[in-house]
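Sequence only, no structure available. Ideas?
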Amino acid sequence: MSCCCCSCVDTGSVGVIQKFGEYQGVQEPGCSCICWPITTVDPVSLAVRQQECRSDCKTKDNVTVTVVTACQYRVQKDMIKVAHFDIADPFSQIAAEVDSVLRSSMPTMTLDESYEAKEKMVNEILASVRDAMGKYGYDIINVLITDIRPERSVMDAMNEINASRRQREAAFERGEAEKLLKIKASEADAEAKRLAGVGMANMRAAMAQGFQDSMKFMKDSGMSEKEAMHMMIMTQYLDTLKEFAGSHGSIVVPHGPSAVGDLQGQIRDGFLQAASQQKMSGGIFG
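Reply:
I predicted one. Tokens follow.
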């Protein structure tokens, strides 16, 4: 900023002093007296600035992408003369260097690989831009790849592929869960049947023991085996009728008292037939 014979330079900047267009030196921040228009002062900011670059590239799998890069840089104070006079458009120079690196790197990678190689590309860009701009008095502080953006149709296709992959994974997990549930249900059913069998065996053993104790008690009381058997059959018969009477919807066909005797005869004949078959089997194979 030049005004009459006073020149003011803001904090964070320096002034490039020229006399008749010839470089004279640097003015520090503050106010100075100059002989205007013979002497002029051009302010140059030393603050860190950021430039966004957009590069259109093609990947190894022929996908066109736009790579958005952010370059952070500033002017080196000790090279202020070179930075001010030797390069007319530093922004275009930085963008050209970024484009050059990306357009040589991206064709060697597929789209998926480019997302994973961001750090590698950042290091290549940083080294190239620092080397190119350092001789012009610009210090490249950092480079960031903020976005790798394919065409809209490619993005839609990628989203569909990812959605299909997620659906397959979800279907697989659901199938595994259903499989596990069926296995556990089968194991539970098998265990229930095993326990039911154990319970049935214990019940029959208890019934047999009860019959044996009842027979022994009745024989000890002076009853014959025939009378004891008849009484037990009669007791079981009455218990069965009692169970039928307690359940709704059961139909009992009436019969005479002789049916109990017929039942007793059938049971006795069954025992005799079983004993006879056992004896014959022992005679043949014994």
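The radius of gyration is 52 Å.
Hope that gets you unstuck.
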